[in-house]
Amino acid sequence: MSRTLGPASGHAKGPFAVDWEERYDMARLRRERLAAAQRALTAAGLDALMVWKDENVRYLTSLRAQLIAGKTMALNGALLLPAGEPVLLCSGGEIDKVRAGMPWIAEAHAIPIMEQAELVDGFVASILGPILAERGLDSGRVGVDAGNVSFIDAMRRHLPDLELADGDAVMQQARLIKTDVEIAIIAEACAIGDAVTQRALDETRAGRRELEVAGDAMQTLFRLGGEMAHVITPFVASGEHMSPPHRLATDKLMRNSDLCFIDIGAAWNGYFADIGRTTVIGRPNRRQQEIYTAVYEGLMAGIDRMRPGATTAEAADAVVATIGAHGLAEHLFSLFIGHGIGVGANEPPYIGERMPGATDTEFRPGMVFAVEPLVWVPGVPGGGGVRIEDMVLVTEDDPVVLSRVEYEERLLL
Fold it and tell me: Does the model's pTM come out above 0.85?
């Protein structure tokens, strides 16, 4: 299993524009993403695609918008046809920025927050309806990735001859295999995410609060040009807060013998890195070492199965079997073991999902995953919860681990 970046993956060259090295071709990135989405749209038999999810709008238009807590999928949208440029539907607060600084957007319209029923109805009747009619789309089949009930009702009232279909699956298909430009950007996000994680690890010591460590890490994230954390609620959990996992940072004081888990990650140019490490304050006890070793070996076994021809179920089985050999399989966290990642912080396919309807997917070169087994055992002094999380690229050959933060040697047996 490779711990360094091979030619297929690129490497983190630096986030700045320079004249002495070719780095990230953003114009090519936009062209390739648009083409991937249009291929998926055509393959699904759709006449058009309307997106509202933040990551899908970013993917199609490169709009980096202000995100307001609790208003996901209510601020910005985009309309995509089988050919031509997308139409951006954006908050009035973004429209001037778009017109002044995004020349690749040929058409943009200001829209209200898609929440109040009367405003939503007005948008469909007076803005969206004419846009669709101009393109002959007042009838036909249009995919939509998300929408509240008032939006769907307004669409049915004002555009009764329009058939709405699942557009989110179309975007998932378009985003599944990353291009070499996308992989290079993800590698840069990982470099920032590694630095964020390392800062948190360096600041973890007795007498500090979980929130202080999260604040230190977030300072590094923004200092290095990161856009946001992987999780809106940065995850710093120490001691008993990992048994069971709290999955956020609190005012709890860290104490000697506490395990401490860091999961903050980074986004850069719209792509996410999801990286997690567990450390220990002072000396670990034997049980903590046993749990950590089981999780580490399980992670390594799962990553080793992430090759073309193998499946997500096989990777999950390798993780579970390895952790089970340590007698800890029943202590695995009741969440998937890994997830796809890209412009979506979490996106399909999933590794080890156990909920009804879970699917098994064959690994293909260009897929990127965050793999994150978590085991927690109650009653362990200093906490018995361990997660280790790495970013993994599937290649034609060995899987490539894009995250590079060191593992905790004190916890390995």
Answer: yes
